[in-house]
């Protein structure tokens, strides 16, 4: 649970540090846009409620497998839903978040040196993806080594023991065909492998939530700080669908991680609240917030680029590659076709939302 605590400390730090870095500085003009503070506030309140409900609903649907047999991880429909959600997350990284980062860090409001002379957006996204890989690999490796180190004696020397007892025509491992289980080193090895996979699923779900939450806060603050109903109106519907689909991807990972009920509740509530809280923060700082100030552009651009790197890595490596290269998927041509179609639909639907978001 120590990793979970560190994750949420980081997220809270991001939530409360960002507003202090992007206020109080003026530079480029925001341009002429229709402003109506009262009307804009009504749209913002609608956005808070609709995004909150959509996010909670989306993240909870994949976890209904405990009550709805068709949504259990061993069923084909779960693979199809997860492929759709992975397409949503991949599209979010490439179509929504990364272009925003490029726009922020290449803005004419920033000094030419160094922001115009080096591709910071791609660099930050690359470093973020590599950092995610390192966290993924080191955390899983550390857990596996510590777990195997504490495993019962005999597990590590399985081959020698099997060889020795083969000569004596006796095995320390016996199976029961009627019961469908095994005893001895093989059973211990299977348990250790299962525990390692479970830990990896937990790392994936926590890192994925980190990447999603960072850009969700930024989106919320930007929407809350705007006073143009014309700008906010299309964003309400777009962000509602955005949070719903993205929540499905995160919910699928959380359901596979088999967290305790308390941890699941914390992750669901935290995901559901990030964008609405960001909107509330944006409303509070709308009088002093300037989205074209150099501080706002740099902070948002770097965080968006880092978030894009995390989301793209997680979608391609931990969600799509893990499922599409699994023996379950490779052994069923029908499931491959259905999952690929679902992937394209997810990516396509999320890409269409970019027109309004």
From TrEMBL:
Top-level taxonomic group: Eukaryota
Keyword terms, alphabetized: Ion transport, Membrane, Signal, Transmembrane, Transmembrane helix, Transport
Record InterPro entries: ZIP, Zn/Fe_permease_fun/pln
Localization annotation: Membrane
Transmembrane segments: 43-65, 77-98, 118-139, 263-285, 305-325
Main location: membrane
Pfam families found in the cross-reference section: Zip
Signal peptide extent: 1-24
GO molecular function: zinc ion transmembrane transporter activity
PANTHER family in UniProt: ZINC TRANSPORTER 5 (PTHR11040:SF35), ZINC/IRON TRANSPORTER (PTHR11040)
Family: Belongs to the ZIP transporter (TC 2.A.5) family.
NCBIfam families xref list: zip
Name recorded for this polypeptide: Uncharacterized protein
């Amino acid at each position: 649970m120590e990793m979970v605590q560190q994750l949420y400390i980081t997220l809270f730090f991001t939530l409360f540090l960002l507003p202090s870095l992007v206020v109080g500085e003026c530079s480029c003009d925001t341009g002429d846009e229709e402003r109506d503070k009262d009307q804009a506030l009504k749209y913002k309140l609608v956005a808070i409620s609709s995004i909150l409900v959509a996010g909670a609903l989306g993240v909870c649907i994949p976890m209904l497998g405990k009550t709805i047999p068709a949504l259990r991880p061993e069923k084909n429909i779960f693979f199809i839903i997860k492929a759709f959600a992975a397409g949503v997350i991949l599209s979010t990284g490439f179509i929504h978040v990364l272009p925003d980062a490029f726009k922020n860090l290449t803005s004419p409001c920033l000094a030419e040196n160094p922001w115009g002379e080096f591709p910071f957006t791609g660099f930050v996204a690359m470093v973020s993806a590599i950092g995610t890989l390192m966290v993924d690999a080191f955390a899983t490796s550390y857990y596996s080594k510590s777990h195997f180190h504490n495993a019962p004696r005999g597990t590590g020397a399985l081959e020698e023991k099997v060889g020795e007892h083969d000569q004596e025509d006796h095995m320390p491992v016996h199976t029961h065909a009627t019961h469908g289980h095994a005893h001895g080193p093989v059973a211990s090895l299977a348990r250790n492998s299962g525990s390692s996979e479970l830990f990896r699923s937990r790392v994936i779900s926590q890192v994925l939530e980190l990447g999603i939450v960072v850009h969700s806060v930024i989106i919320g603050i930007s929407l809350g700080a705007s006073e143009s109903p014309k700008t906010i109106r299309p964003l309400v519907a777009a962000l509602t669908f955005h949070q719903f689909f993205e929540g499905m991807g995160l919910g699928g990972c959380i359901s596979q991680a088999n967290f305790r009920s308390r941890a699941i509740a914390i992750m669901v509530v935290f995901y559901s609240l990030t964008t609405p809280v960001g909107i509330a923060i944006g409303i509070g700082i709308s009088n002093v917030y300037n989205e074209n100030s150099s501080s706002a552009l740099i902070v948002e651009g770097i965080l968006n680029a880092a978030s894009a790197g995390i989301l793209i890595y997680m979608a391609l490596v931990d969600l799509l590659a893990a499922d599409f290269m699994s023996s379950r998927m490779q052994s069923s041509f029908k499931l491959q076709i259905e999952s690929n179609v679902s992937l394209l639909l997810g990516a396509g639907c999320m890409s269409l939302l970019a027109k309004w978001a």
